[in-house]
Amino acid sequence: NKTWPEIRDKLREWRKDHVRCSEKIVELGEYALAHYSSHLGNEKWAVYEQLCVAALDLCPGKMKVVNRCIQKLAEQFPSSLRVSMLEGLKSEYLKKWDDALEMYNSMIEYEPTFPAPYKRKVSIYKAQGKIPEAVSELNTYLDTFSCDHESWLELTDLYIGQQCYKQALFCVEELLLQHPHNHLFHQRYADILHTLGGKENLEASCKYYCKAAELNSSNVRALYGVLMSSSTLASIGKISAKVKSDHQTLAAWACDMIEEYYKAQRVDKSVIVETASVLDKLSLK
What we know:
This protein is mainly alpha-helical.
């Protein structure tokens, strides 16, 4: 029972914020195109595109809607890359992988600076379990779009899944160069170093965990990382009494910060007691 301005504004809001509420979008989109197409003006083409993507989420029940939207858009924009993207997405849903890849390759050849087909190719390779091909495609993409931090994160995950930790470190280094004040990237770098193990990597991971905690004192994972890495460093190899004391002091500081965090969250006292017990076991005496 929404009015025309409410329907229009809601569809605009969902497009702007990239909201994925497919059932609601299909419901409002079909209603808007059926009853207010003349009111939409040129905006109706954006609604057709929005409706098509949402309808793909609801297939096979909404395949007729998908086909209708693609047909309308193709008639209006016969050489549009965005319409080609919708056709590629439809092929992906139908698991016509070769057709989709062929379309995306032709799009890349026609317009190498259009990022979407590269990413769709990565998605196809992942869906097929072809991780080496997905890694190769992402590297090709990042040669051109090196500032896409989401793709660097995606490549990091793929490398970690293949236990290629040194390559994953390189990806996070790129992220740190672009976003030096992002505490999550410092924490991610420390996580990988900690996974690699060894005295030098543990020392480096401790520093990056500390930096993450400095940038965001509420990053509990980073605080636990400081605790674990400094505790381990205090107990391995032959080290001087001063170095061991420094690591123990750092571990104790991390313990205090973690307890303060949970107390500030006003969680149940039993959780605080249990946390304190775990921290006590992790701490070095």
